[in-house]
Structure prediction request, 1007 residues.
Amino acid sequence: MSSARLRDAAREALQALGSGGSIDGEVLRASIEVELDGGSELVALRLADGAVRWSCSCGEPRCRHARAALRLLAGGGEAAAQERRSEPSAPAQSSPDVRVVEPRARAERADAEGLAAALCDVVTAVARVGVEAGEAASVRDSLRPLFEVAPQPLPLGISRWVGRLKLALVASDPGALARVLHGASQLATDLRMEAPDVGARRRLAAWLGVLAGQAGSLDRVSDRAMVEVAREWVDGVEMGAIERRYLVELRSGEVFLEERLRSGPSASLGPCPRSLQVGLAEVEPGTSPRRLHLLQYAASPEVSAHTWEQVGSWAIRDWTTLLARYRDELAQAPGLAEPFVVVAPELLEVDAATADVVDREGRRLRLDGGPLPAVLDQLQALCPELPPAWIAGRLVDADGILRLRPMAVARVVGGQVVHSVL
Amino acid sequence: MEQIETLRACLRAGIGRGDTDALLARLHLPDALADGEVARLVVARLDAAEVGSIALGGVGAGAATRREPSRIVGTRSSFLMRLAGGAEDPGVDIALLGDLRTLQAVLRAGNLQQRRAAALRLGELLADPKGQAAEHLRPATHLLLHLRRWDLAYELSQACAGLPGADGRRARAGRKEWDKLADQMEADILRYWDGLGEREPIHVLHGDQRAQLLSRTRDLSDVVLRHLCAIIEGTDGGGHAAGRAALVHALRNAADTRLLASLRAVLVGNDTELALAAGRALARIDDPRVQPLLRMAYERAVSAVERLTLAGALGLAGDKRGLGYVRGVLAEDDAALLPAALDALRYTGTSDDVQRVTELLVHDDPLLVVEAVKSLARIGDGRALLPLARLRGETDRSALRAEIEEASIAIEARMELLGEEAPSVEAAVQTFDTTKMAAMAKRRDPAAVRARARWCLIVGSLWRAIGASMRAIGRFEEAAALRPDWALPVMLVAMVHARFEEYPQALAAFRRALELDRDYVEGHSSAARMLAQAFLRRAETVDRQGRSDVARALLEEALALDLRKAPSGLRFALTQRHETMRGGR
Prediction:
């Protein structure tokens, strides 16, 4: 039996390591991959209130994968024999707090050449009339074929791109327009590649998501602790059409993005902020922040002060790092990159016209309230004397200046870190 | 740099315009390139150049307008406008007021922020009533204990908890019960998210339990608040659409900034009814983000009901830009929209709307009549007292009588704060009857209406000349009702009152005239003299009555006007009196 092989291998490895003295720690959680019938599934187990609770990526509460994993932990032999003899009377011990999300239907494969041509047509039509023409009839006409040839349902990346195009036209900003159109032009090039390189594959995933038949390109993550720090609604084809939830993975500090259309199926449950125990999730190989699809998770509205401190430990403290990263991401994925960061400033400086956060070298990062400048008033009201512990938000630029659009702030109150949504 | 500017100019105007060959030459591109290729190269180059030039901000780098345009404020600087929460630069901090009568009046007649502050301040003073006159303590305590205003429930409970004696003990016992409910709710919510509770805990509460829990939303823990946010956004997993809507409605008076982000998400969502409920709830949150959010929603609103509801919400949040729209809907007299229009007028209306609203007091729809009464209460103009009194005498519906009583008390409280007094019954009858007739006449030919208004002015002036003040006032009010944007007849009403030393009534009329045409009134030398005199005499009277806060505010209101046309002696007297009062503060 495979369990026996893993146990035997573990025994040999332990012998090779040596005794190491007594071990007082207790194992509370384990993830075990079980291969069965030509496929493999991941079983996540944890000890809670004296009982073992589990969930399996196959979605079944009392599956054979779970049995195999339990058998491994139970030690096999007599335990396995008892299992065969016993009545199946014990109810399924699936974890009650674990929520399972049905994998979403993937968009059909893209008509690559058709999509590339449609994108080029949009670029040409918009550039021909210029930003001063606004959303001219020719621009609207050029978008129609794009929607017809794009994968259905419309990928979030394309929806967001259309939203950004409209914003650039409304703002009459040639720089912003150039970025958006350059992104479309780059995507067209990527679509026409016979063998897309790494950068192209990342961009394609960011634009189109993972299409049907490409599930193998997804990364899987399991058994992670995350916290949602901010949430926003951004424009897509329609105003406020896309919901974005920014999750910080506490072990690595990486920011993930859970994204959905307002009109689409609901994503995971829970408010912002919330703490998440991720049993299993799929991650798209796109630009940062990478898009994440929770499959099995437990959520709670309770977030400890320690968790906020952990987030702060990953915060960026040097603004030159931010600037380099921002430029790099924009260059890698023009028209699409919208980096989300957590920064820890030394100072918050606010006057009537501007608001800046200052790093330890005195460098200034401008704060930008975006469509709601009063956000900065609220930030100032929350941090009247001491600087914030950290601020989370999206990086943007305007007038050649890098800016942070703050969405959440953490500050020290009574010796503890407290989070507020802006 | 020049190339970047060329690229920007090209993308600004469009590559299809102008001399393409020259453009290609400037950009060192081969000629005879197709538009598509030119576009691709232009955007790529410009984007690369822009990205490469992004830098960190320095001091003064990049023009950035951080402040939203200031909210619309009235041109008056009356006491109420200048109380903290009622004006951009508050001159009077409610938290420092010491007069129980003034605070009670603010509690009845102020805007929402003022009433909240007044409730808390009253509670502070009554918790330690040393130095307060005994005859003022009882009514103030009674008001705190018996004022049934759900929008003030939080502040009233805080205030009552500090009262001495049995009243305070009862309030504190109520607080303990609430603490138990809140703690149990938090435990149930954590169990729910741990998968140990099957039903969503807020949904299973009875309506009164939910109301009790939410009466102190601001004291709920972050865990409970976040769970409420999950329900608002529909991410609680309970799947109760009706429960979600009920909760958003129930949170109308929660006034907790932690709810703002979730309410904002709903405000821009597709569910109109939910969005409007969220707008009403947002309007009651004291936060700088609220007004811009409501403004954006108002400007995007399509249907009349949406625009009216959001106009009211915006008015409650301190921005009355929707008033013109509300008045337009009222003028159209669409029965389906009148309730929403009256509700909006409650937070946006001014004295100029009193006539229109009093016409609705005789409407067939009893619910509409109640809305009209509530609007009159909030507008607080003394001309509404007589029609309200008449309605009270005519109706047998006790709920309506109760609303009328509350409205009358609120109007009188507001007038007290402004140094005004109700007109005499005779004058009020004249005004009420003439304006009623004028309202009916107004619906005829505009030219005839204007002619009639001029005629009324002439007749009124004749009555005034022979000293028949009541008749003169009646004619002038009729002229004002026929032409509501005409300051002259209103100014003449004020001058008649002032001539007969009816200064409280003169103040009310002068304020109306100033709202209509401030420059005209200030530029009229007789009016300026009488105006200054009315403010000074009234301030002296009110000060003698022990209402120094109101007296000082009257003087400050007068000194905020352009009184160059008034005699210098009067201006000096106003200044002197004000300085004396400030020195004695």
Notes: Residues 62-76, 84-89 of chain B have pLDDT under 50 and may be disordered. Residues 165-193 of chain B form the longest helix (29 residues). Residues 96 and 121 of chain B are 8 Å apart (CA to CA).
